[in-house]
């Protein structure tokens, strides 16, 4: 077992530790995200002041949702893994074809390491700012609040882990598309609006029109952010919380299975040009 | 001056030619830009659908604020690419040395660095918003209002351009393009899409006196909408405020001068 897992574990930790070094990028991202989170919270407050009765979640929950969304931005499947894009362009991808280990699993754990290492410092900085600093200076109305209760907090941790697995399976699909078409350009500009809208990053999915809410919860992008977040503030409890996590798991399995099949086909047809 | 314009025109021709060598890619990237931006319009619609009018503002009025600020930013973004990537592409690589050696101003060369056609996606979104505003509101596009809109946009272009120049100035010290300035450019658009009366006082003051977005995207638009300022700014002052954008730009160029004076090459 350990022999089997070792190459994947070391690929994961190598990537994780490397990406963790980019502190300036993380700080710049944090500043921008803090600004966006603040502006969005103020806009929501104005809308709630005009018609709070119409909303299925409270203003405080919406603000917490907004901060969580900014904190976990790097966990979302925005773009193919830049390392894979580079290795497709340089032809380095042929080495992955030759290694005696599963290429999908190797790419997958590297994507996990990349996303997690980008997310952790940003999430910590955002938590320090929105959950600790804002209440300290008397702005607790605008703060990131704690989970609804300990159980919801624990469930949210499980659900966030599932979100990471699901999100990495989506990144893998974009990786494979890059490997199949030899072109990463332009892909991001299509995934970005899709992910923003359907993950709940644009507007919490709970605030969508009533006729669309069930469909929005079932589609796969809900699992990368909206479901863990709803579990956190108590919007999904008990059976509904477990159903949400079940959805995340089912989508992950489906997308990993599809990605695995697709990558096998792409790797069989891979042509390395020149050298 | 004429010579400078001719030079800019030939920069632009070269840039367009390069991008049109791959027309499919340019069009797709532009459409992607449009999609990325149009979902912000969807966000406004979702909130109006859920909550109804916010503090008495009609959705068409939001569309006018948002449309004008987006058109302004598109223009600023179109002519400021050289400043935007200044840290990564010029300071870190030392390419700025070459710019300084040429017998033309650095500003001119940086403006001419690249004119990205893919920005039409955001422009298209701005136009869609203006159309929404015009069809849902009793807006009167009289000559006076059109002139005021053009003056507003020019002030906002100056402000956004000034922000990107400041970002470039910071690069003299950080040797990198600081993404944090995005908070004020992209984040500024985010803030300026809604009327200032939605925000708490301290934030409105920040956007009026420190980074004068309100002056180039809010006060003059109130005049076009035929509304007084809910916070009580005198009516005669509202159409004059876009001048603040030009003042900001002038201040940015003072900082730019200082930065260029202090510049030491990173070598090779």
Question: Could you outline the blueprint of secondary structure elements for this entry?
Answer:
The complex is a heterodimer of chains A (275) and B (268).
Chain A lengths: L1 H18 L3 H29 L7 H13 L10 H9 L2 H6 L4 H34 L13 H32 L5 H13 L10 H9 L7 H8 L4 H32 L6
Helix pairs in contact in A: 1-6, 2-3, 2-6, 3-6, 6-7, 7-10, 7-11, 10-11
Chain B lengths: L1 H19 L2 H29 L7 H21 L1 H4 L1 H6 L3 H7 L4 H6 L8 H17 L6 H32 L7 H11 L8 H10 L2 H5 L1 H7 L17 H20 L6
For the report, how would you describe the main beta sheet of chain B? none
Number of helices of chain A: 11
Alpha-carbon Rg of chain B, integer? 20 Å
Q: Count all strands of chain B and give the number.
A: 0
In N-to-C order, the SSE pattern of chain B is HHHHHHHHHHHHHH
Structure classification of chain A: mainly alpha
Distance between the termini of chain A: 37 Å
What is the general shape of chain A? globular
Q: N-to-C terminal Cα separation of chain B, in Å?
A: 32 Å
- Return the structural class of chain B: mainly alpha
Number of helical segments with 4 or more residues of chain B: 14
Largest interface: A-B, 36 and 37 residues
Share of residues in strands of chain B: under 5%
Query: Number of domains in the coordinates of chain B?
Result: 1
Q: Could you explain the architecture of this structure?
A:
The complex is a heterodimer of chains A (275) and B (268). Chain A is an all-alpha fold and 275 residues long. Chain A has one domain (2-269). In chain A, 74% of the residues lie in helices and 0% in strands. Chain A is globular and about 60 Å long. Chain B has one domain. In chain B, 72% of the residues lie in helices and 0% in strands. In chain B, helix 3 packs antiparallel against helix 8 (120-136). Chain B is globular, with a radius of gyration of 20 Å. The two termini of chain B are 32 Å apart.
Key structural traits:
heterodimer; A: 275 residues; 11 helices; B: mainly alpha; 72% helix; globular
Short description:
The complex is a heterodimer of chains A (275) and B (268). Chain A is mostly helical and 275 residues long. Chain A contains 11 helices and no strands.
């Amino acid at each position: 077992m350990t022999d089997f897992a070792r190459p994947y574990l070391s690929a994961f930790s190598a990537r994780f530790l490397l990406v963790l070094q980019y502190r300036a990028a993380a700080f710049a991202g944090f500043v921008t995200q803090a600004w966006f989170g603040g502006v969005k919270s103020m806009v929501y407050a104005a809308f709630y002041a005009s018609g709070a009765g119409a909303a299925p979640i409270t203003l405080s929950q919406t603000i917490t949702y907004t901060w969580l969304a900014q904190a976990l931005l790097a966990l979302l499947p925005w773009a193919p893994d830049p390392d894979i894009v580079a290795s497709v362009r340089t032809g380095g991808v042929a080495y992955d074809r030759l290694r005696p280990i599963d290429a999908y699993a190797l790419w997958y754990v590297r994507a996990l390491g990349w996303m997690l290492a980008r997310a952790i410092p940003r999430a910590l900085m955002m938590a320090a700012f929105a959950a600790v600093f804002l209440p300290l200076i008397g702005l607790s109305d605008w703060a990131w609040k704690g989970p609804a209760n300990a159980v919801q907090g624990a469930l949210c941790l499980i659900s966030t882990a599932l979100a990471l697995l699901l999100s990495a399976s989506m990144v893998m699909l974009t990786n494979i598309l890059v490997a199949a078409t030899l072109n990463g350009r332009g892909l991001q500009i299509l995934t970005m609006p899709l992910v923003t809208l359907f993950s709940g990053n644009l507007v919490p999915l709970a605030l969508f029109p009533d006729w669309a809410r069930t469909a929005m919860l079932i589609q796969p992008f809900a699992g990368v952010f909206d479901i863990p977040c709803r579990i956190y503030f108590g919007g999904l409890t008990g059976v509904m919380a477990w159903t949400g996590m079940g959805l995340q798991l089912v989508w992950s399995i489906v997308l990993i299975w599809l990605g695995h099949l697709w990558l096998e086909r792409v790797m069989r047809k891979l042509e390395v040009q020149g050298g | 001056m004429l010579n400078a314009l001719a030079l800019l025109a030939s920069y632009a021709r070269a840039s367009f030619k390069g991008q049109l060598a791959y027309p499919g890619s340019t069009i797709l990237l532009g459409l992607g830009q449009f999609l990325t931006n149009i979902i912000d319009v969807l966000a406004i619609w979702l909130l109006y659908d859920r909550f109804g009018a916010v503090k008495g503002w009609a959705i068409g009025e939001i569309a006018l604020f948002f449309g004008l600020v987006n058109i302004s930013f598109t223009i600023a973004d179109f002519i400021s690419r050289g400043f935007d990537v200044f840290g990564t592409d010029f300071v870190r690589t030392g390419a700025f040395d070459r710019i300084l050696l040429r017998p033309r101003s650095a500003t001119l060369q940086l403006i001419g660095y690249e004119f990205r056609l893919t920005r039409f996606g955001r422009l298209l979104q701005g136009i869609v918003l203006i159309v929404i505003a015009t069809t849902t509101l009793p807006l009167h596009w009289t000559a006076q209002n059109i002139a005021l809109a053009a003056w507003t946009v020019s002030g906002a272009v100056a402000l956004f351009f000034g922000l990107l120049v400041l970002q470039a100035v910071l690069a003299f010290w950080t040797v990198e393009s600081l993404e944090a300035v995005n908070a004020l450019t992209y984040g500024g658009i985010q803030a300026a899409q809604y009327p200032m009366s939605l925000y708490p006082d301290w934030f409105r003051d920040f956007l009026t006196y420190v980074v004068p977005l309100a002056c180039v995207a809010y006060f003059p638009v109130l005049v076009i909408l035929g509304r007084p300022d809910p916070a009580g700014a005198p009516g005669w002052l509202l159409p004059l405020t876009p001048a603040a954008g030009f003042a900001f730009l002038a201040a940015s160029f003072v900082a730019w001068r200082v930065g260029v004076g202090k510049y030491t090459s990173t070598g090779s």
